DNA sequence: ATGTCATTTTGTCCTGGACAAAAGTAGAAT
DNA sequence: ATTCTACTTTTGTCCAGGACAAAATGACAT
């Protein structure tokens, strides 16, 4: 649309907004690794060519999957893309930072829906998008929607952002609308204050809510009695909440970028602080990636293991 | 609750998050004006005492109302608070940045609702808050809700943030829930694709959506046919949208922090670009503050002038 | 009131050094 | 074979203080 190469250059603030990397980080990478290597304007201020911004987006995406900058900044775009593809193709990789739910081969419905997203976002057609999500959810039912369509959509959104097809703003809009749909659907379920009662949250430092919400939706769809504390609850507050609401299960969600050490330490600390008859369930990116087995904690490798786990829990209680 | 003064110190990143000011800005203020004057830890890093953070919050609030740093940073907390009070007391001050809708004396219902907000936010009781908003809206009706309760709530939230009673995160949560309620209410109105047809948006650089949404709600409640483009639409895109949707009125919303020059220039540019039979309405912070009169543009001093203006428009069309 | 131009004010950018926090690694211990 | 501890490397953020672009103001003419 605008082939003028000069129009493509972005200043450091724009790149920081666009990629989610800090300005300081961009500058120190340049100093240390020689990339990015922006041009300069007359005043000596950095101007990032579009091509470098694309590459930065690939880097950011891989970092969010747990890779480290030092291993990535020397690679060219093709090599980076290759790693991303490898990651996407890996079966059983588990839910990623954006909650792709593991490399479950998505059904046709999910993929078709995912393909419709990007055009709708670019048109700023918030209302149409909302309607489309609602319709798809109604058609598939909450369970199928969360296990098939949502992961497919998240994958597509991630790709689109990496490719520069959509902007951060539009990605936020998508997340917003999807979360509203999920919340509404959970809220609209027939009120069956059944068992198990599950307390959901994420640990301090984990901002991603989507995985949490997906878990809540699945649990609620199975007839569990869900109480969500929202994200970023300190361990102390979780303990207090457990004392007050007496759940049988506490479920924690983690993104792929969350540090494994912090996750494990947090889980063990919580395990020690909670009554031993309260089960502790953990799922999401890091947990799945490590195929983790922690004593006293139930770890999920894929989001679609949730319904089965609920059934199993019920069996255990009945027996 | 925690009287230990050492616990109260925050590092520069926390203060930046908390106040919404940039780290660079905090440092350059210190250099230029001598305030803030943070302590230092062993490593020489800034530690801001709580008292200074409070004062920074007051400063930020006044800047958002259009004041300039140079005039504020020499003042102590009491003097800053005084200016804020003066502002709040000023009748006809118009909708502020947070959309307080002018100093309309809020009805009892509005004030009572506003008082319930802070406790609910601090408990992270998102669901209760959502329910409370929905109930209040149902009780008052959309029009009364937008003209009385929402301004009262916004004022209370602003105060609470300034006083450090709530955090940014909680303020966002409030805005989010309120916007959802308004959108749902607009959407739920009996489908009366009446007249006038109104296109709503904000100019590029204006991020505040709440005022826009309040205007849309009022217009929709009056039976107008509203089309919202969302915030930050460049003039060119507005012109294109007008050509496609053929509205009789284009409505623009501005916060108090928006530059008066940019607002006026943008409005005039738009006026020149649009067919002369399309009316141009403008309202919100800056517009109201200047008691502005611009030729060819209808300026609103207070949000509750909107219903009357619609009635008047209809009279003009009928006659 | 509105436009123009010079003068301030204000926020952001720059460099390059430093270091705290996080993550990886290795060896010992359960 | 995992878990713990101590050591090393990586990585992001902080600092100082100079510079300057962008925005706002003020003066003056229309």
From TrEMBL, chains A, B:
Domain HTH merR-type residue range list: 12-84
Protein name in the entry: B12 binding protein
GO molecular function: cobalamin binding; DNA binding; DNA-binding transcription factor activity; metal ion binding
Gene3D superfamilies named in the record: 1.10.1660.10, Cobalamin-binding domain, Methionine synthase domain
Keywords assigned: DNA-binding, Transcription, Transcription regulation
Domain B12-binding: 195-319
Family annotation (InterPro entries): Cbl-bd_cap, Cobalamin-bd, Cobalamin-bd_sf, DNA-bd_dom_put_sf, MerR-type_HTH_dom, MerR_fam, Meth_synthase_dom
């Amino acid at each position: 649309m605008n082939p003028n190469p000069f129009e493509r250059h972005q200043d450091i603030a724009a790149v920081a907004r666009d990629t989610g990397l800090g300005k300081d980080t961009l500058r120190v990478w340049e100093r240390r690794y020689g990339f990015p290597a922006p041009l300069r304007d007359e005043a000596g201020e950095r101007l990032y060519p579009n091509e470098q911004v694309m590459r930065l987006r690939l880097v950011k995406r891989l970092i969010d999957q747990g890779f480290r900058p030092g291993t990535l900044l020397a690679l060219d775009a093709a090599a980076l893309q290759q790693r991303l593809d490898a990651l996407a193709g890996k079966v059983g990789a588990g839910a990623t930072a954006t909650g792709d739910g593991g490399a479950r081969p998505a059904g046709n419905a999910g993929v078709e829906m995912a393909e419709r997203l990007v055009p709708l976002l670019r048109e700023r057609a918030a209302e149409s998008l909302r309607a489309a999500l609602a319709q798809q959810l109604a058609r598939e039912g909450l369970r199928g929607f969360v296990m098939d369509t949502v992961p497919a959509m998240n994958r597509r959104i991630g790709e689109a952002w990496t490719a520069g097809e959509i902007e951060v703003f539009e990605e936020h809009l998508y997340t917003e609308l999807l979360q509203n749909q999920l919340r509404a659907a959970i809220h609209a379920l027939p009120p069956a204050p059944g068992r198990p009662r599950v307390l959901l949250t994420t640990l301090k430092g984990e901002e991603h809510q989507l995985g949490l919400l997906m878990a809540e939706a699945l649990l609620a769809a199975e007839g569990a009695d869900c109480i969500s504390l929202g994200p970023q609850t300190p361990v102390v507050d979780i303990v207090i909440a457990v004392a007050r609401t007496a759940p049988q299960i506490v479920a924690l969600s983690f993104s792929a970028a969350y540090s494994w050490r912090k996750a494990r330490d947090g889980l063990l600390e919580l395990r020690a602080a909670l009554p031993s008859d309260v089960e502790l369930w953990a799922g999401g990116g890091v947990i799945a990636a490590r195929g983790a087995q922690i004593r006293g904690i139930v770890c999920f490798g894929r989001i679609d293991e949730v319904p089965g786990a609920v059934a199993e829990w019920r069996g255990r209680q009945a027996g």
